[in-house]
Amino acid sequence: MKKQFIDKLSPGDKVDDLFVLSEKTMSQKKNGDNYLNFTFSDKTGDIKGVAWDNIDQIAAAAKSGDFVRVKGGISDYKGGLQLTVRQIDFCTLESVDPADFLPVTKYDPDKMFEQLKRTVEQYVTDKYLKELIQAFWDDKDFVEKFKRAPAAKKMHHAYIGGLLEHTLSMTVLVQKIAEHYKRTLNGINMSLLLTGTIFHDIGKIREFEYNYKIDYSDEGRLVSHIVIGCGIVDEKIRQVQDFPKQTEMLLKHLIVSHHGSKEFGSPEVPRTIEAVLLNHIDNIDAKMNGLREFIEKEAPDESWTSYNYMMGCHLYKGIKE
Amino acid sequence: MKKQFIDKLSPGDKVDDLFVLSEKTMSQKKNGDNYLNFTFSDKTGDIKGVAWDNIDQIAAAAKSGDFVRVKGGISDYKGGLQLTVRQIDFCTLESVDPADFLPVTKYDPDKMFEQLKRTVEQYVTDKYLKELIQAFWDDKDFVEKFKRAPAAKKMHHAYIGGLLEHTLSMTVLVQKIAEHYKRTLNGINMSLLLTGTIFHDIGKIREFEYNYKIDYSDEGRLVSHIVIGCGIVDEKIRQVQDFPKQTEMLLKHLIVSHHGSKEFGSPEVPRTIEAVLLNHIDNIDAKMNGLREFIEKEAPDESWTSYNYMMGCHLYKGIKE
Amino acid sequence: MKKQFIDKLSPGDKVDDLFVLSEKTMSQKKNGDNYLNFTFSDKTGDIKGVAWDNIDQIAAAAKSGDFVRVKGGISDYKGGLQLTVRQIDFCTLESVDPADFLPVTKYDPDKMFEQLKRTVEQYVTDKYLKELIQAFWDDKDFVEKFKRAPAAKKMHHAYIGGLLEHTLSMTVLVQKIAEHYKRTLNGINMSLLLTGTIFHDIGKIREFEYNYKIDYSDEGRLVSHIVIGCGIVDEKIRQVQDFPKQTEMLLKHLIVSHHGSKEFGSPEVPRTIEAVLLNHIDNIDAKMNGLREFIEKEAPDESWTSYNYMMGCHLYKGIKE
Amino acid sequence: MKKQFIDKLSPGDKVDDLFVLSEKTMSQKKNGDNYLNFTFSDKTGDIKGVAWDNIDQIAAAAKSGDFVRVKGGISDYKGGLQLTVRQIDFCTLESVDPADFLPVTKYDPDKMFEQLKRTVEQYVTDKYLKELIQAFWDDKDFVEKFKRAPAAKKMHHAYIGGLLEHTLSMTVLVQKIAEHYKRTLNGINMSLLLTGTIFHDIGKIREFEYNYKIDYSDEGRLVSHIVIGCGIVDEKIRQVQDFPKQTEMLLKHLIVSHHGSKEFGSPEVPRTIEAVLLNHIDNIDAKMNGLREFIEKEAPDESWTSYNYMMGCHLYKGIKE
Amino acid sequence: MKKQFIDKLSPGDKVDDLFVLSEKTMSQKKNGDNYLNFTFSDKTGDIKGVAWDNIDQIAAAAKSGDFVRVKGGISDYKGGLQLTVRQIDFCTLESVDPADFLPVTKYDPDKMFEQLKRTVEQYVTDKYLKELIQAFWDDKDFVEKFKRAPAAKKMHHAYIGGLLEHTLSMTVLVQKIAEHYKRTLNGINMSLLLTGTIFHDIGKIREFEYNYKIDYSDEGRLVSHIVIGCGIVDEKIRQVQDFPKQTEMLLKHLIVSHHGSKEFGSPEVPRTIEAVLLNHIDNIDAKMNGLREFIEKEAPDESWTSYNYMMGCHLYKGIKE
Amino acid sequence: MKKQFIDKLSPGDKVDDLFVLSEKTMSQKKNGDNYLNFTFSDKTGDIKGVAWDNIDQIAAAAKSGDFVRVKGGISDYKGGLQLTVRQIDFCTLESVDPADFLPVTKYDPDKMFEQLKRTVEQYVTDKYLKELIQAFWDDKDFVEKFKRAPAAKKMHHAYIGGLLEHTLSMTVLVQKIAEHYKRTLNGINMSLLLTGTIFHDIGKIREFEYNYKIDYSDEGRLVSHIVIGCGIVDEKIRQVQDFPKQTEMLLKHLIVSHHGSKEFGSPEVPRTIEAVLLNHIDNIDAKMNGLREFIEKEAPDESWTSYNYMMGCHLYKGIKE
């Protein structure tokens, strides 16, 4: 179990722990001797490394992308830290805990999932949608992925458990907002809207790879989470007897249209009240989470943040109550 | 007091009541005689009219845009109704009740205003913002306009009292949504956000004319409600001693940026969390109200609505719980 | 069997045949008597109609959208023709031949389908894709719909059999164009490209209704033919043992990306050579067919056509060899 | 008073003068000893610096952004110059002349202001607008800022006095262009157009900070110069008795609409002839000045300039009379 | 010579004069008799016409688009005027004066052309450009077309002589504006800029047809005035010995880039100071003329105009000095 | 004749051959001595160089952009190669073979040109177009440039002979595609379409410089290949007696519109069937060649390519038959 994390290392520390070998390059000294430059990573950041001796042996031990055990020491170099490497050993995937290398949600996935289940029990009254959701809950493999998947590679909820955290947060908003408009809009279909909320991004369990790093999968880049998600829902609907055609259509519409417009990747725009609401609630939750993640990483004593790509501007942090 | 409304007239009715004379044109019969065509309006709709006799006298009585008392009778014509006019008399503005001619909110403006005041008392804790709001509440002329102004000419909340209804609805959403994110975003400034919500559209009390019809004012078209609104807030801030410069700046930023992007008329994009939230909440409330108004006017037994310009598509109404 | 088609009627003709009653409105004469106005349609066009007598009986016989048998006569009216109606009788859907009311391809669907099958046999060499295609051919219900479906509501191939005609034409182009680039691009996957071509628009068999008129289905408007199509392919892939995951992904990518960009409704842009080619070939075939249909309807002796929405301009027809 | 400017330094010079300490970083030699790297700036450019001795003392003397007195010498390093530092002393803001550190207009602000006043006297005949302008001229604090403010952070007139230079240049163009069209357009309101020209960018006196460097102020980024400018005009209008409502509205319209379209930050598009003209004249003057500044900095003997962001292209300089 | 113009006709007038027969349709009375409906036009407007007798003879006399001599009388009909036709005779093109049917500039083309020539003499000092312009002036056919061509089909200067009027107005602006910047921009090439101004739209002499109506020519729609214009200049440059290649390139650049950006039809953006200026001056002159023409046609006593497509808004006319 | 190409050099090689001196900079060692850094180039790539001795003499021998003969040796440096320079001698343009320094087509230009001529003979039947093409073939200077010109600076066919290769490939596609649609579109004008294909990019023979490097010419940037191309065709049309005006117009239309829309630089959109086809075929051939060139340079064993600017995405290379 990994104990030494990069953001806690100081000059003078001895190092003997697991890292990802992110980069490795052979360089030459003036006298013609070779030496090695490295970048090592874990979930807390990156550190530069160098090896002066045993070059060939160390170089042969592992390649970029491998997990390695590193022995060496920390020193200052050009205003930063440097890991001088004495020995590198290759580690199998089985021997590492991915959680040491991947950012994770701050919340307990199991508790989040239980809260989501309670929300379903309370608000989803439609017989068929209840059965459909139950079919998902009964699928152990699905539940495991649903608890682990990130909601993005960057921008917002870009960490293990991010999809569940985003989904749960949206169901809370759905209750609040839909309730507010229920009186005047007589006829927001809560069963449908909540089910759509829960599964709107479900294709992301396959759009991303998130075993040892978070990145797009081939399927994700080629087919898109919207189309993958409709396929996942299709598969489960086949397990529910007499699932009504219209409900299927409206549920898929929520998945298909939740990006709000074609230029954002939705093949159809929202055409039901539920779809319009879902698109807006998704947007708010993504923005609020993305801004929180962004601002947490900013220097605390500046009035303005660095440029934020999601909002397209610098953000002002000058006043808080 | 007007008793006969256009949407209740039937063939055979005798008419003797007030209408707006929306259109008046002189036409010629084959035999060369003149006759008059009219459109009359009230808050419930329009009706075509015709006069065959006393042409010159009737024509001289009033011009397009005037309020008139009309005497005549209703008959069928080409599948619709027609008002055959015997007499028209001009009416002064003082003699009519504008409420008979303008669409109004379904809610009681006084009750909405009281609810808004209670929300302020409960959530706005900043000393200066409380004083600022009180300065607005103490301005009788302002309060009267604030209770009457529409939020738009068409699209959403396009009726007397619409601005207050929209504003109140948004404050309810602000409480719900801001509360949801308060825990994680430690530092949503509720005093600021609520004050900004209350006054984000305040320029609309001068952007529109809404005495006898709802239309843009000259000032509205030339200066825009965003700039008018900042001026109104400026004026009241001068009445609050030592109002902090930074609070003023952040409050105006909420007004300035609430359309969310330049192409929608905001000179600056949202650059604070409060401004991002306000933009989204404004958007949701406009959409939900606009959709309700739109769908209420649609034929109830069709699966699809006519084309909706706000959403850019036909909407599906096929299923409701 | 219908014998009298609207584009062949002349003044003086007696009429006794089937039409769609497209519009029906009650009007009033000056003397207060009612009369009826109609529009009747078949696959060759529209004609106005009028009924002066037996009004109530005729009005009760059928409603807009019904198939009816009409008895009456043709006369000139305001430079066009008018059908004076004596009698209207309702007809059940079963008693009409939809082909009388729907535009159809000029080619024999069975021959087109045979040609398509031969192309597959010749060029699709991949074992799994062959099996997949065979699974489609073995599905009688599918084949029937595939032969009948239109490729659009308007713009191009907007007629019964249009989807098959468009698909077949594209496979011919694929052979020609892919062959041209095969030498230099060593590695256009013909099996994949042809299979993708055949099924790129397959969702259109459910995106449209085309029994008695061509229009979008509810599913079409809510889910889009791209997502429907992936679902149809999914279903058939389950019938092929060990269908390779990568082939499935690449085949779906061809469907998903064939509109070429997000703003045209593709959730992903083309990311393989085959997908880039398919997008262009689809585009050319749609344009060429759309232009042909458009120009055929234009006045033959004008240099310029009316405005063409597909191309965004007037087209010049001034010279042909 | 500063005498040594960066663009005039040569190898071998002794240095003892004021600079902005733009950057300061601690580095390490191979032997583990620390040394310091600097960037020093003044209005003529930047120079790299290095300190090998007295490191801790020098490092503690000042931080990035401070004004400092530097003692040392100039040498060649890697094809450029380097300032080897012996001593650094902190300087208070009061002890420096900002003009040594900020780019300034080539023209005399007082003379420009006098010319502007004469133009007003000659062309502004409207009683209320004359009074309004006089109220501005009587405000000493305003006049001082108006003479100093830049018109931009970069792009065009990005220097002290730039706003006045830009404004004056535009008033000259207004006279020329408006006169040309006056005959045909009978009714260009010269009083209004000139007053609008003078104050169209007036918000920039607060949109920027320009005491020691030119940058956006918080208010500038949050509220925008258009809204700030309307507020400044509002304030002065209150000092003019009976200022006509319509004139106020039209003057603000010139400020509000002068960017020409919403996507460029104007909440309303130009809706009067004067506003259309002002937008174009602003545009021309910004382009002409921006191009001049840009081309002056380019290598004189190349046919093409580097990429120009304002115009979106490389510019051709190949021929001049 | 035509004496009776449509805008001067009154009820009761006898008519015997030339008109364009813009429309002609055969209609049927209730009793089955045919009658004829017409629209007649001249440069002052349109009038409806009708013929009850001699139908066949009148119908055969001329077709839509022909010039005709009409005999008949004027009467009121449905609030407008109607020309009851007794006789129609075909007229050859030779027998009509096009000036009776086409809108024309208010200025004297010969005087405008003389003023343009004087400007050239005064400001164009480059030997080759002088020769080039002289080659144009020496081409009688060119000069005649240059004096007659319109600058547009609608929008601005859409009348006979409009191109010359627009060109001349621009040369005046060029003198004023270029002079203003000459001091600071040392090196505006006046010879080049003025020559480019004179010929920037020269392709319009072939882009339009303007013998009997103003419309696009086939060449205009297929090749565009920018490309036509470069060809015209090419042709004349061949007549000037040793015309410098660089001057030719820069002159064509002014023609090629004068629309300012690709989406407005310029294959290249402006890349010289002269080209930037020309684009702006063209824009101002088009806007000012277009607005004048537009406002002249508007009702004089309304504060707001109807929708203006060129500016994309309603315009405010409320105040003029 | 150059024998040593950069992509074949290895550590230990002696060098004595021609290169382009792409970059030359003087640097300083710690001890204050100067040394020289270089970049040398040929058609196969770049290599870094350094000179420690004879600095002044070597520095004076040539400047950036010159062709030089370099004597020295190759060694490893920082994981790459380095050319240690002993001597540099300037070479005149005449003494080098540009083909050693410019990328070239893989095909034989003479054979490609012969194939193009045969295609013309077979398919171009129009008398005047045949004569026009012959006039081009008879122009030795033209043919030489046509065989050498590149089709782009980067993106696609960006090498000597690229224009001819692109043009020939398109004529093959034209035959295939036009033939396919000829039956249904009765009236694709093959003579016109092929001639247009051959000359659609002909302006590129002057839009680029391609003697010693491929770059835009001044004329190319200022006038654009579309306008240059029309001028070239104009010139040759003058050599064909009685060339029909309409054919000229339609041929130029193919050149003018072949980019498909204004924002891509075509002053007019395609308005004939031939122009629509040409635009699509140009697009396909550019994409296919651009993708080939791009993928050839990518690492062979990765599933995904680096970012491709032409397609706006990463491309998937995972499967090939």
UniProtKB/TrEMBL annotation, chains A, B, C, D, E, F:
The organism's place on the tree of life at top rank: Bacteria
Single GO biological process annotation from the record: rRNA 3'-end processing
Pfam (any one): HD
The HD/PDEase domain, residue ranges: 159-296
MF-aspect GO terms: hydrolase activity; nucleic acid binding
Alphabetized NCBIfam families for the sequence: HDIG
Name the UniProt record assigns to this protein: 3'-5' exoribonuclease
Source organism per UniProt: Desulfonema limicola
Organism placement in taxonomy: Bacteria, Pseudomonadati, Thermodesulfobacteriota, Desulfobacteria, Desulfobacterales
Gene name of the record: yhaM
